[in-house]
Amino acid sequence: AWANEGLDLTVGFNLSPRQLWSAHLAEKVLAKLRAADVDPSKVVVEITESTAMADPDRTQKILSELHAWGISLAIDDFGTGYSSLARLNHLPVDILKIDRSFIRDVHRDSGLASMVRAMIQLASGLGMTPLAEGIETAGELEFLQANGCPVGQGFYFAKPVPAEEIPALATREHGLLPEPART
Fold first, then answer.
1. Quick one: CA torsion of 11, 149, 132, 13, rounded to 10 degrees?
2. In which element (H, E) is residue 114 found?
3. pLDDT, tens digit, for every residue of 61-100?
4. Smallest Cα–Cα separation from 103: which of 136, 75, 125?
5. pLDDT by residue (tens digit) across 5-59?
């Protein structure tokens, strides 16, 4: 429906470990996308760092199936689990979502700043897009932009809204849609 209104948006959703490891996950997800007439390239499947590392071989197989259909993949809450960096390098992940606990006051805390810079560099070095979660202030956003983090989310941009309010929000807040013609 958003595409009919001129919005070119990507939608992400989280999978729990139980969902991730359910039988025929890729086929089920693809069937749902087809039924809703959603282009798989406009979807991001997110799993937490701890889920990814709980059974890395199985996770790699399932994520590879989803990725083969054009679905983007994200590791959520990065920095809060116990990732094996060697394993992370072998997962077909497109986005590394830096947990909000590292973002709050990053512009005022040199320790957090060092960790976030390292995470941004790690993601970029592995060919992933770093994404900062939980941005709430202009200072946090400015720090992230200055340090090469191209994507973020958080209350600084908008509070969560129902799907039907997205077009109005996109027009009003971010100029993603042309304003209606005035007569």
1. 20
2. helix 110-125
3. 999 999 999 999 999 988 887 777 778 888 999 999 999 9
4. 136
5. 778 888 999 999 999 989 999 999 999 999 988 999 999 999 998 888 888 889 9
Domains, the chain, ordered by start:
3-174 (3.20.20.450)
What is the number of residues in the chain? 183
**Which long-range contacts does 104-111 make (Cβ < 8 Å, 24+ apart)?**
104/134, 104/136, 104/140, 105/140, 106/140, 106/143, 106/144, 107/137, 107/139, 107/140, 107/142, 107/143, 108/139
What confidence category does residue 181 fall into, taking pLDDT thresholds of 50, 70 and 90?
very low
Burial environment of residue 45 by CB neighbours within 10 A (0 to 12, 13 to 18, 19 or more): buried
How far apart are alpha carbons 1 and 163 in whole angstroms?
10
| Overall pTM surpassing 0.85 (yes/no) | yes
Residue 90 to residue 109: CA distance in whole angstroms: 32
Task: Find, among 1, 128, 124, the residue nearest to 67 by Cα.
Answer: 128
Q: Counting beta carbons within 10 angstroms of the beta carbon of residue 80, is it exposed (0 to 12), middle (13 to 18) or buried (19 or more)?
A: middle
Helix, strand or coil, per DSSP, at residue 23 = coil
